[in-house]
Amino acid sequence: MRQTLLLLENCIDTIGDLIIFKKAQEQKLTSFQKERAKLYKVVAKSSDAEKAVEAKERLKGIKSELKTIRSSIRNCESIEGREPNLDMRIKEIKTKISEEHTR
């Protein structure tokens, strides 16, 4: 179910689209991890309490973003391994959904 939603919400129609989406998610993951590392340093070394509080708040947001991104990457990997004929499967799902909406 989550994998189907991932495909539909992100307009992934082919295995190529899936790979591009996964790479973009991996790049986001790396970017957020770098930002998180910098913020940890700010919290640890900051003598300004206000900056430390702001950094902690941003860290909370990054934590939830990382969770979502990691989940997307895991779903992509699962789809890649499970669906060798992804293109055909996506067309079947979209046809089924459009038939349900026309009823």
Explain this structure to me?
The protein has four helices and no strands. It has 103 residues and is mostly helical. It has one domain. Helix 2 packs antiparallel against helix 3. The radius of gyration is 19 Å and the shape is elongated. It starts with a helix and ends with a helix.
Short characterization:
The protein is mainly α and 103 residues long.
Sum up the structure in keywords.
single chain; 103 residues; mainly alpha
Compute the number of helices.
Answer: 4
Distance between the termini: 21 Å
Biggest sheet statistics: none
Main structural class: mainly alpha
The number of distinct β-strands equals 0
Radius of gyration equals: 19 Å
Query: What order do the SSEs take from the amino end to the carboxyl end, as H and E?
Result: HHHH
Please give the structural blueprint.
Layout (H helix, E strand, L loop, with lengths): L1 H8 L5 H31 L3 H34 L3 H17 L1
